[in-house]
Specification:
28% helix, 5-stranded mixed beta barrel, OB fold (Dihydrolipoamide Acetyltransferase, E2P), alpha+beta
């Protein structure tokens, strides 16, 4: 009888730990894309919270200093300074004018500390221009 009780308690503890770990993982990975304006509206609530912020990389703002990369994201008239210190190399599409998502936390100084960067170059995904047929040949 005691053996079944101990076994049952052990099973309950293991299941409890697994549920706790799963819930922690879900809340950590649950980050929504925010605009720079939405980040500003959050005020102090944004500081220290894991967020994903998107914008366009400002022309000439990318500066590399060893493994640290600083740049500025902008949307309309709003700007956000970002410092990337992640281990992964930056994507090939990360360059001036590219759309980028920075995943990380907003520091108390207002600088976004990114641990992941995703980028895409808008021109890479645009449709190729279609060649127009010569109007003189169209009538033949």
């Amino acid at each position: 009888m005691k053996t079944y009780l101990k076994f049952g308690a052990l099973v309950v503890v293991i299941i409890g730990v697994l549920v706790w770990l799963a819930m922690g993982g879900i809340s950590e990975s649950k980050t929504y894309y925010k605009t720079i304006a939405e980040l500003g509206q959050m005020g102090d609530q944004a500081k220290g919270k894991r967020l994903r912020v998107g914008g366009d990389v400002t022309q000439g703002s990318i500066h590399r200093n060893g493994s640290e990369v600083t740049f500025t994201l902008h949307q309309d008239a709003r700007v956000l300074n970002v410092v990337y210190t992640g281990n992964d190399p930056l994507p090939d599409t990360f360059k001036d004018g590219a759309q980028a998502l920075a995943d990380g936390k907003l520091g108390s100084d207002g600088v976004f500390q990114a641990s992941k960067i995703q980028a895409k170059c808008a021109s890479k995904y645009e449709a190729k221009p279609q060649l127009k047929k010569d109007a003189s040949r169209a009538g033949m």
